[in-house]
Amino acid sequence: MKTIFFFLLCSDLTYAASNDTICTGGFKLINNKCWKLFTDPGNHTVAERTCTSYGGTLFMAKNAILSGFPNAGTGRCVYYSIPGSPSGQWLNGDCTRELPYVCELPPTQSDICDLNFNNNCYFKFDALPFSEAQEQCQQMCGNLVSIHSAEENRFITSIYSHLSYEFIRIGGLASSSNFIVWTDGSIMDYTNLETFGGSGNCLWLSLTTTTTVSYGAWYTRDCDSPGHFLCKRPVGALNCRGTPSPPTPPPVPLPTPTCTTGTHMAPGVLSSPNFPSSYNKQCQYTLATYGSNRIRFTFSYMSVYNYIKLYDGDSTDSPLIYSYSGSTGTYVHTYTSTGNTMFIDFYNSASSTYNGFNSTFYSIF
Ligand SMILES: *[C@@H]1O[C@H](CO)[C@@H](O)[C@H](O)[C@H]1NC(C)=O
Ligand SMILES: *[C@@H]1O[C@H](CO)[C@@H](O)[C@H](O)[C@H]1NC(C)=O
Ligand SMILES: *[C@@H]1O[C@H](CO)[C@@H](O)[C@H](O)[C@H]1NC(C)=O
């Protein structure tokens, strides 16, 4: 009886301590990291390729580094020693030397999904346009995939390593080379965007290398043509009925805006026509950003004869935030919208020599 009680208590404790944290791919949970030791010696190329096939990171055992690379610091290949004492550090060494090695994956929580990485489940789907792909993902409590680290990017390429797709869709919209909005509302804390521009603003991840694209890098392409895609949801989010779905930013087409037409997408720089020379007519500008983001707008220079008016919305019917006429020269003042649009009405009369305004605007969360 005592023995049985002891056994139950032990297994309970084990469960509580492990907190449902698991390692996938046959990796072992050691000190809150998932490690797999490969005892068959491999050189750097082989070891890296093996780890990458799991979406993992290569670690070379510290002792192996010390015995294998007496001249550490001279080789071309970069190794990371196992964190410990002294803590992990980057070392370089000989690329041809064959050694046992360790791959590391982030631990995750258990879930029914097959593709489980770093507390998220991933699901592969056949080709659809952007909006329909996002809808499909939301039906299973997820979103088109967002990517937040080089490790996650590598894990994703590893999912497709045995398929011959050229590209997959990922869940981002880029409005410039350094601004991406993810459909799941997560912040942009990592980018692998190699080229901005081309036929659209939707992000695609390349699964080939050619003269124009690199394996694993991201590109902007059209939003409408069908592309294979990947959905992502947090582990455990099996039933999302009743919870509001996150806002889906529409794939906004971006024609070049002019004085009165088109939309200026954040982030950007906006000045009156001919600036710093004067422009003696009326100009109206619509500023916008994606989804539920807001706009932070900053005037940096101001010299206006008739008026400049800034509205919190998409027209002169929206609340007026700021109105000015006169010449102030350098003028740094910042305003924030409550929604995802702002509207500017600017007018210099024909006789004016006042030279207009200059401003910058950003998207904030
Ligand atoms: C279990 O996981 C949750 C969520 O990740 C975390 O908040 C909690 O601290 C963990 N508990 C233990 C005992 O590790
Ligand atoms: C690494 O090992 C593989 C397989 O044994 C071999 O083909 C390759 O040439 C080696 N590379 C280096 C840099 O030694
Ligand atoms: C407008 O302001 C931006 C940011 O301060 C600056 O980079 C740009 O050169 C200015 N444009 C003109 C025409 O002065």
UniProtKB/TrEMBL annotation:
Domain (C-type lectin) ranges: 117-232
Keyword Disulfide bond carried by entry: yes
Name of this protein: C-type LECtin
Pfam families the record matches: CUB (PF00431), Lectin_C (PF00059)
Alphabetic keyword roster: Disulfide bond, Signal
Lineage of origin: Eukaryota, Metazoa, Ecdysozoa, Nematoda, Chromadorea
Signal peptide: 1-16
Residues in CUB domain copies: 259-364
